[in-house]
Amino acid sequence: MATLGDIGVSALINILIAFAFLLAFALLRIQPINDRVYFPKWYINGGRSSPRRGGNFVAKFVNLNFHTYLTFLNWMPQALKMSESELINHAGLDSAVFLRIYTLGLKIFVPITVVALLILIPVNVSSGTLFFLRKELVVSDIDKLSISNVRPQSIRFFVHIGLEYLFTIWICYMLYQEYDNVATMRLHFFASQHRRAEQFTVVVRNVPQIPGHSISDSLDHFFKTNHPDHYLCHQAVYDANKFAKLVRKRNRLQNWLDYNQLKFERHPEKRPTKKTGFFGLWGERVDSIDFYKQQIKEFDKKMAEERQKVVKDPKSILPVAFVSFKSRWGAAVCAQTQQSKNPTLWITNWAPEPRDVYWRNLAIPFVSLTIRKLIISLSVFALVFFYMIPIAFVQSLANLEGLERVAPFLRPVIELNFIKSFLQGFLPGLALKIFLYILPTILMIMSRIEGHIALSTLERRASAKYYYFMLVNVFLGSIVTGTAFQQLHSFLHQSPTQIPRTIGVSIPMKATFFITYIMVDGWAGIASEILRLKPLVIFHVKNMFLVKTERDRERAMDPGSVDYPETLPSLQLYFLLGIVYAVVTPILLPFILVFFAFAYLVYRHQIINVYNPQYESGAAFWPHVHSRIIESLLISQLLLMGLLSTKKAANSTPLLVILPVLTLSFHKYCKNRFEPAFRKYPLEEAMAKDIMDGTTDTEPDLNLKAFLADAYLHPIFRSFEEEELVEVRVDKVRVDRHQSYADNVQTSDLSSPSPPHYSYQLTSPPQDINHHGLPPLYAYNLSSPPHYGYHYEVEP
Amino acid sequence: MATLGDIGVSALINILIAFAFLLAFALLRIQPINDRVYFPKWYINGGRSSPRRGGNFVAKFVNLNFHTYLTFLNWMPQALKMSESELINHAGLDSAVFLRIYTLGLKIFVPITVVALLILIPVNVSSGTLFFLRKELVVSDIDKLSISNVRPQSIRFFVHIGLEYLFTIWICYMLYQEYDNVATMRLHFFASQHRRAEQFTVVVRNVPQIPGHSISDSLDHFFKTNHPDHYLCHQAVYDANKFAKLVRKRNRLQNWLDYNQLKFERHPEKRPTKKTGFFGLWGERVDSIDFYKQQIKEFDKKMAEERQKVVKDPKSILPVAFVSFKSRWGAAVCAQTQQSKNPTLWITNWAPEPRDVYWRNLAIPFVSLTIRKLIISLSVFALVFFYMIPIAFVQSLANLEGLERVAPFLRPVIELNFIKSFLQGFLPGLALKIFLYILPTILMIMSRIEGHIALSTLERRASAKYYYFMLVNVFLGSIVTGTAFQQLHSFLHQSPTQIPRTIGVSIPMKATFFITYIMVDGWAGIASEILRLKPLVIFHVKNMFLVKTERDRERAMDPGSVDYPETLPSLQLYFLLGIVYAVVTPILLPFILVFFAFAYLVYRHQIINVYNPQYESGAAFWPHVHSRIIESLLISQLLLMGLLSTKKAANSTPLLVILPVLTLSFHKYCKNRFEPAFRKYPLEEAMAKDIMDGTTDTEPDLNLKAFLADAYLHPIFRSFEEEELVEVRVDKVRVDRHQSYADNVQTSDLSSPSPPHYSYQLTSPPQDINHHGLPPLYAYNLSSPPHYGYHYEVEP
């Protein structure tokens, strides 16, 4: 077991690593050439269009103002400047509430740390007989500060139990406050939002196919009958998955074309060539530019055909639709009620934001959803408990002998002693490392197979799966020896009362491991987050090979968004560690506090300067965060009971039994009290907002139908230029962007005559739109190319 | 262990008992004097107003037609004559669907019995080595027919596993069909119902108290704002629990008065007297008639005061209301949506039928409901697992020594040898028997404390509690030795995989016990049900002491209704037994079949001729029945796995693992598919019915507001006569009844001047009602006594 000194050394190393990252960040971020990597949010917001420092040629790429190098931590106070309401305006409610998780961590753990250190450390230290055996150093220093140091049957366990009660009450109180706050913020956020398509829209799934009637007709008929006063219009959904695949492939070809053209421009003496075979490894050598141009042309033809097919073929209309209502009240009613006698038909739910829709899953037949969920649940269970089996199998293959057999030419290198020992140490772990690296992707794919139709839901589901993986394999796996599979086996064959004992008794011994884990994963990990090494490299690579215009550069900067599927679970793991160890080994708490404070600063900076959220779910993840913390409380109570029962504290342990019951009741109360705010839209709110709109509407003439007409059009049916211009509408720097757009059109060879027309159409008054006769099935307009035409359609 | 011969003897005894009951029933039911006990439904329906056979004086009481004595089983074909749709009209959907549970049992178990007997018995019998040891008779005959007879590791277990799959699939298929049928019947029943108050009404709980506004004002304001197009009116609820108590007490006094007056009439020579003290045991001797008249007068005064208080005091208006809407659509929307930002305020639910409302629980503050539920859950858990502790305590007191100490004068009697041995055998069991007798009442009280506001919900909840009690204490308790508490203790300290083994291995051994149980509880118990011994005795006692008029006699007949809290759980227990033993000991199945067939006949007869349902819930209990059968399937699968694993059938047992997963998926699918029909009212249905009403309305002029105005008035605020007359309105034999009513008014001394006036008011055209100016708060009218006056108010 580690001594306090060992921990100190480990802490020092990790602090140094963290500082190295911070220093690197400080140096890199003030270089103008990196400005788009470290401040993309301001470019997207329109707050900045080029790096701040101009001057001579060198200063364009390197920062020559040496004064700024000295104040390398000044991003921290800057990150704290923005108020919460500004933050919500700047980055959305999701991001603001995400930051509140860190402040919640601080609010919960600062008082707990103070109380635990002041009360428990003296109690633990002064209690043990071990304390007087200091000379022999039979136990680690950490253990002397923990509950292990207390004699069995000691009366002092009442202190621990009392504190467990106190901490539980405190955490529940903070959770209640926070849930209340977040729920209010969510409702306030919706109330203060401008008129948005999703407020009036409901997604209807499993529309029944009536022979002789189109989906569109049955939709119209059904909602005109059953919501006569409120139904406005609907938008059918096309199965454009095949088309989307073509678009993606074409984009890849376009990238290659751009790359080759750029290469040719830089070295005009030599036309780039490539081999046509597999991965360009063999086959006939051809001119690259011609080859890709030819390929793109073929693709354009294919896509035009496919698009015609999608639009013309009634079979490509999915039994899903976005139905819009005249008022928020009407939409709220439709989303919350059962429509049909058969509850598996005409299933209505709130529509996600247009940008939050995961279009591909809309094509999944509704009937298969139950089976998909079942299969994925079983797979996740298998993944959590048996993931070691395939990895062990791969490990058994990926040894040095196998490598030599596959690649005999490497033998001389491998036979070198120091490389051999390195590989022998490295190879077996490689499969595991690769698996852990791609695990979030696997979980995301699993969530996709489950068939959720919103990106936000997908991310939440992936996050839940990742949390359970970590709970079993990081938390339990570290405490109990053996693989998760062995644990599962032993748990199934142990009595249910034995399990908390087995785990509880190992808890204090693993404190040093988790302290190290917090420092490596929490401290150094977060510091690496701010450095954005991967986006930095990608940006510069793209900049070098693909970027021809300012617009390309903008597209290359890829701000990303908070990676909820990975960040939330690890955050929840820290809550679990803090809550479990608060009473057992309180010395772990300061390390968690440092993590929360540091991570808060880093993410605040990133959210202000970097991330550009893909969607706005209105903090829909909060109920999950709340439930996970409640779960952590329950786990901590069970484990403490197990631990105490091995300490023969029979007179005090039964006092703990009531605590889980109270915690569960609290959870149930909170669920009743606050969760509906995240699931349903109260009619009172809807009506209030409708009334407000009716009286204080800033755009009283805006025709709602026109406003909603193409809100839920598959994004693939819009050309990219057009999409950008639609965004421009809400931008402050409209003129700026239009100018740069016009430049792009001239400089790029993606000449498209139609987008400017269409983009104005959207901003033009509604009668103009009506003049164009937009039917509810707006996508029909796709058949009139001039309006929606893809740039490749009109290419020469 | 019992041999087949033992079972035969037991069967014979039980069949004889059952026949004795049936014979007694056949004799008693054809006596005209018992006509009101065995055919009350026809009196209530108005199909019969006096016993069928008239003739001379003796024939009024005793059946002299000896021919009818010979055909003593002819009620059976009669019971089968009525078609299901007639049955629904006659007794309601609840009763019709209740009978379907029995036919479902038959549909499930007839094919299973045939297959199991044909396939499993030969497999089991031919398999064992035991078969060849017949001479020694080391095992019971039953065991030779069961799975116990199969050699360990035998390949024949594949037959059992295959049949378990087959039976599961068959049961699931039948369950699906039946759920589908019942859900359709429910929707059809609602669709075919005439205009009813509950279709337009929603019960709103936790109406916030706004200082300076009455509950009524805030209700009006809230619903006018948030449901402007649909809100019609509301009825406040008064806290009349104290008043109801007074009414109950007064009724008791009235009974005593009636009794004494009748006594005096029969023996005019001696005026009845009583002592005023405790239970009439001591105190001053007074004239009974005067005493009770005096007491009633005092009560009337108290009640008048209390009534004034209830009506005048704004504090007696509860934060609960029945809110009515202009259309079913409006009510369906309001019931299914969240109204307020704070989801614990303005909670809306479907209103139960007026006669189904459990008024007392409306006064329970909403905040306390969560705590009540928690406390009751814990109590039920304690009751199920620890009920033996208090009973053992009582038993230790209630022995002969204790009895002698308390009642020394009994000593000579007790010391008699045969009485002593009888008591020693009897007393210890007495406490347990009393407990089991009052258990349903205890569970019902517990459900009431939980705070449900509908009688139907109360009965369903009590039924669920009783089922779990039986599952643990009858099913598991009989299989595993020891009290439930000991079982719980051992289960907590066993590994989860060990539990099904422990139980599974004992299952075949207990088959004979359960066969006996089925015969005693099922066969003889059901036969005693048809005899109606208790109501018979009570009716004749009342007839002797209390009945002065025909109306009193009608009231004394007490038809009762199906006792769901006791019947459903035992029914579900039979399903459990059948499903568990189908594969293990198939010889048990025929006994269950006999039970289902016999009970079906008996209950069909009772429902047609006796029971008068208190409420109509539209078969709301069906989802519970369905879930319990699914639970039984899961239990049987787990236990079979346990049993097989002790048989070392390692190669076949894993095949069973997938079955529970499939069963659970099926359950989840059914829940999604059908349960909403029992929880929500689809808008499509509501709208269709609204539209139908609008076009084909038979009472187009009826003002809906007047129709709904007093639908949800606390029944205690109506006098009994009035209530009866309101019922008359829908009766076919209107004239008949009015006549008898007029008779009653003249012969009874409960002279009430107002009811006839009021009763016509209800049937008179709406403008008449409007003329009386019924406000939404209809109960205010109570302050104008002539309209609603209680008969005691105008008494001299």
From TrEMBL, chains A, B:
Kindly give the membrane topology term recorded for this protein.
Multi-pass membrane protein
Which GO cellular component terms, listed alphabetically, does the Swiss-Prot or TrEMBL entry include? plasma membrane
Query: Which positions make up the signal peptide?
Result: none
Query: Can you say where in the cell this protein is located?
Result: Membrane
Check the record and name the Pfam families matching this protein: PHM7_cyt (PF14703), RSN1_7TM (PF02714), RSN1_TM (PF13967)
Task: State which residue ranges cross the membrane.
Answer: 6-28, 108-133, 153-176, 374-398, 418-445, 466-485, 573-603
Q: Which UniProt keywords apply?
A: Calcium, Ion channel, Ion transport, Membrane, Transmembrane, Transmembrane helix, Transport
> Which residue ranges does the record assign to the CSC1/OSCA1-like N-terminal transmembrane domain?
7-178
Q: Name one GO molecular function term.
A: calcium-activated cation channel activity
**Where in the numbering of this chain does the CSC1/OSCA1-like 7TM region domain appear?**
372-644
Residue ranges for the region (Disordered) are 741-766
Q: Which organism is it from?
A: Durio zibethinus (Durian)
Annotated CSC1/OSCA1-like cytosolic domain ranges read 199-361
Its protein name is CSC1-like protein At1g32090
Q: Indicate where this protein is primarily found.
A: membrane
Question: Where are the compositionally biased (Polar residues) regions?
Answer: 741-752
Family (UniProt): Belongs to the CSC1 (TC 1.A.17) family.
